[in-house]
Amino acid sequence: MKFVDQVSINIESGAGGSGAIGFRREKYIPKGGPDGGDGGRGGHVIFRATRTLQTLMDLKLRQLFKAPPGDGGGKKNKSGLFGKDLIVRVPCGTMVFDKDHTLIADLTTDGEEFIIAEGGKGGRGNQHFATPTNRTPRHFQPGISGESKKVTLELRLIAEVGLVGFPNAGKSTLLKSLTSANPKIGDYPFTTLYPNLGVLKFVDREIVLADIPGLIEGASKGQGLGHDFLRHISRTKLMLHLVAIDPEHPDDLIKQYHTILNELAQSKNKINTSNPMITVLSKTDLVDTDTLDSIITEFKSNGIDVIPLSSHTRQGIPDLIKAIEKGLR
Q1: Which of 202, 218, 200, 222 lies closest to 210 in space, CA to CA?
Q2: Fewest CB atoms less than 10 Å from the CB: which of 154, 169, 204, 211?
Q3: pLDDT-derived band of residue 189, with 50, 70 and 90 as boundaries?
């Protein structure tokens, strides 16, 4: 299934039903008066957040969401039925924007609802228009039209921990090592084409991790793929910054580290780089001990604490798990 995290849709609530014209006609009551009932309210369009969805794909396949109208009123003061509300299910973390890109709603909790378009009110029947001088009114109110609008939905995944770094930094492999997630893994750039989620389980809690597609220099200006998904780490409480060891270019790691920080700082998604961050030195199994020690020393000399690990050998994984738990306290 294709991952879709942004979509524009048209919505239209139901129109209210028309009021009715009626007159009471019963035996022994020759002048019963008007008894036309009111029309029913049109159906609302309601967004409902759910944990069972992880993408906006279902909404992309349907451009118009229209609620049914209310029924018209009837004789004998019978009011029309309300139109059935249209419930549109969206993933938790969905933000709703109007045509001016002003935030209308932010649905983060399972079961949370927001009425995005209210149904039109039903019209009044002729029973409401009787006066001492007009005891047999023959007019009624039509129902009020429903609301029609275009909105943009943006999904920002609800994850406590976000994994960032260059392509092939080992983010997907680490996610698989920490959780039961099964992301696509390969030895070529941009293996991850959309965010992957995994759950790290502790004795007393579960932590959701999000693997963001790899960033490159210029990502904040639209280069590469990762910039499209940076919005998904704007909610995270903790970031794991993976810097992969390259045996052929071991001196470029500090530069890579600062490049990613710069792209995060310049992102339009308002990512707070002052939030807690754990720097992970990945793929340590590719170099010998002396080279690894010199790399760690270089990071420390620049004031950067790192956790060295290898997802392949699982060396350093327990230390990282402890650091994640501590960082989220």
Answers
A1: 200
A2: 204
A3: very low
